[in-house]
Specification:
globular; Lipocalin; 159 residues; eight-stranded antiparallel β-barrel; mainly beta; single chain
Amino acid sequence: MKKYFILPLMLAALMFVGCNDDDDNGGGGDASPATVVGTWEVTSTTTAFEFDTLGTTFEQELSAESCTPTPLTVFNADGTLTTTDFELGTDSEGNINCEVFETLSGTYDLIQGNTYSIDVEGEDPIEVLLILSDSNNTLELRVGDDGTDDLFVIRHSRQ
């Protein structure tokens, strides 16, 4: 089973995750700290990576509907957050599997624009792009969306 750990291991994921040129943030809405505060349910993840020197890419989007309990990320007004550590992947037959682990704590800080630093317990801080859409009811957390070929996306819906 391919394993994709969410926030705690995103830094490691950047080593083998990529995107293709047609990825677009759709213009993305303002993700000021006031607009991201709240409880967000994970709905899907997308990973893509370049796996050879010819530039061949693999992209996979997985729905989190098989996760029980549903993974959540909570952004608090004081700059703290909690997030569910989970593993979402496929088995050899293409079935989506989800394993939910513990809830982790951390902090988030606005760097500039929609770019934030997220620091989850036990891991180095990472930079992410937060993009809001659907009247601020959909949140994309994008890692590696900096013009390189690295990308990992977690989609959330506001609860």
